[in-house]
Amino acid sequence: MRESYIGQLLVASSTVTDPMFANGVCLIVHDDETRVIGVMLNRPIEPNSEALETILGETNPKNPEPSQPRFSVENKKSQKSEIAPPLSSPILPMGSRSLHIGGPLSGPIVALHQIRDYAEAETGEGIYVAAQKHHLVDLIRDQDEPCRLIVGHLGWDPEELDAEISSGTWHVIPASVDDVFSPANDMWPSIIRRATNSSLAKWIGLPDANAAGELN
Predict the structure, then answer these.
(1) Which residues is 46 bridged to in the sheet?
(2) 166, 121, 164, 156: which is closest to 35 by C-alpha?
(3) DSSP states of 106-173 as a string?
(4) Over the chain, what is the mean pLDDT?
(5) What structural domains does the chain harbor?
(6) Which of 102, 174, 203, 213 could in theory staple to 39 by disulfide, Cβ–Cβ 3.0 to 4.6 A?
(7) Which residues of 4-36 are buried (b: 16+ CB within 10 A; e: fewer)?
(8) Cα–Cα distances in angstroms (integers) from residue 120 to residues 17, 22, 123, 124, 136, in the given order
(9) 88, 119 in Cβ contact below 8 A?
């Protein structure tokens, strides 16, 4: 039986040059016998009022139809994202909240956070996932805890991801709160050495990733 990757970070190898994945850090949030799903953690975009209104289900006073976020994540080949110029939102205080492209596959806005009461699932110790509207609204309004809002995701067949990891595209380490909520620009540089050591430990048969640090 294959090992589940839920709660693990996929850290892109320094040899990866694809713009979507280079210097990327991905958190695995779902893993079963048919599909593995992850979200990129360090691909920030500027939050805008349309995206926030979508979360709330609010409407624009000048337009009776519900607003939609002015960004799109196209297919895996184009790997292009577009957003509107940043707008201030009187609806929700963004504060420390950040909005990220989770990957080239479309999906609902989800939140990663640390509050059990606002969660539908846990992925990694103390790292929670929310997608329900009332949880998202509460999280955005609660400015006391860090929260990452993510739109889009990555997906693999289990065998496909196993092959990418075996080829060295991704290093795998357990997710921690400090890693997941660290600043996007600093995330990959602060993790990559530890992640590389973890892979090296597995390749040469050391009993655990911590022992890899002794090689340096």
Answers:
(1) none
(2) 156
(3) ----EEEES-GGG-SEE-STT-EEE-SHHHHHHHHH-TTS--EEEE-BEEE-HHHHHHHHHTTSEEEE
(4) 77
(5) 8-215 (3.40.1740.10)
(6) 102
(7) ebbbbbbbbbeebeeebbebbbbbbbbbeeeeb
(8) 34, 30, 10, 13, 11
(9) no
